[in-house]
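Anyone up for a design puzzle?
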C-alpha cells in the first residue's frame, strides 16, 4: 500500500505474523516479520510480567530497525500454582528436554509437567487463564499497549488436535471442550491473542487517523 507505515512484528512465528497481518489488512500499514531480518538477534525475555517482556521486545526491535515494532508476550496463568507457568509458559519444562528440543517436544513436556503439578487439585480450584499483552514502540517509547485474557480450567487429560501449547488442557466450561477441540476460526475468535490484536487494531487506527 502506497504511503503505508511499516510495522515490524517482533516474532519469528509465521502463523502469528499472518494472523496480525490479516487483522490489520484494512489499515494503511505494511506488516513485516522477523523472517526479513534473519541476522537480527532476539532479546532476552527476563521480565517479571507479560507486560515487561512485551515492552522490552517492542522497544528493542524498534530501536534496532528504526521502524515501529509490535511485540507480544503470552502465556498461561494457573491460580492453584500461584500464577505459574506465567512468563515461563513456553519453557516451563525446558529442564526435561534437550537444549535444541523442537516446539512439539517442549509442548508435550510442558503439558506433562502441568498435569503432574495439578494431579491432586480439586475441580473447583483448577481455574486458569490465557493472557496476551501487546506493546507497540516507536523506538523511544511505548505508544500503544493492550491485553486480553480467556478464562478456563485445566483439564485432567489432553483433548483435541487443533491449536498448540497448552490448548489440549485448557477447558472452556461454557463451550464444553478444550481450545484444542475448537475449529481454528472459532479458536482465533475467542483466543487471548485474537482479542488483543483486534483491540490493538482499533487503537492503531485511532492513532494513525490522529496523525494525519
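Challenge accepted. My sequence:
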Amino acid at each position: 500500500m502506497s504511503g503505508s507505515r511499516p510495522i515490524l512484528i517482533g516474532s519469528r512465528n509465521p502463523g502469528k505474523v499472518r494472523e496480525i497481518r490479516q487483522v490489520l489488512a484494512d489499515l494503511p500499514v505494511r506488516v513485516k516479520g522477523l523472517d526479513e531480518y534473519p541476522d537480527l538477534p532476539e532479546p532476552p525475555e527476563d521480565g517479571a510480567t507479560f507486560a515487561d517482556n512485551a515492552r522490552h521486545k517492542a522497544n528493542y526491535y524498534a530501536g534496532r530497525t528504526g521502524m515501529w515494532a509490535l511485540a507480544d508476550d503470552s502465556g498461561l496463568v494457573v491460580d492453584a500454582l500461584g500464577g505459574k507457568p506465567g512468563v515461563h509458559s513456553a519453557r516451563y519444562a525446558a529442564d526435561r528436554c534437550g537444549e535444541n528440543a523442537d516446539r512439539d517436544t517442549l509442548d508435550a513436556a510442558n503439558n506433562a509437567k502441568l498435569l503432574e503439578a495439578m494431579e491432586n487439585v480439586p475441580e473447583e480450584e483448577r481455574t486458569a487463564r490465557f493472557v496476551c499483552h501487546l506493546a507497540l514502540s516507536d523506538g523511544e517509547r511505548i505508544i500503544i499497549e493492550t491485553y486480553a485474557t480467556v478464562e478456563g480450567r485445566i483439564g485432567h487429560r489432553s483433548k483435541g488436535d487443533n491449536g498448540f501449547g497448552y490448548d489440549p488442557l485448557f477447558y472452556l466450561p461454557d463451550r464444553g471442550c478444550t481450545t484444542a477441540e475448537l475449529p481454528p476460526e472459532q479458536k482465533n475468535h475467542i483466543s487471548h491473542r485474537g482479542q488483543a490484536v483486534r483491540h490493538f487494531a482499533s487503537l492503531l487506527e485511532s492513532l494513525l487517523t490522529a496523525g494525519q
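A detail worth pointing out: Strands lie at 5-9, 29-33, 68-78, 127-137, 142-154, 170-172, 177-178.
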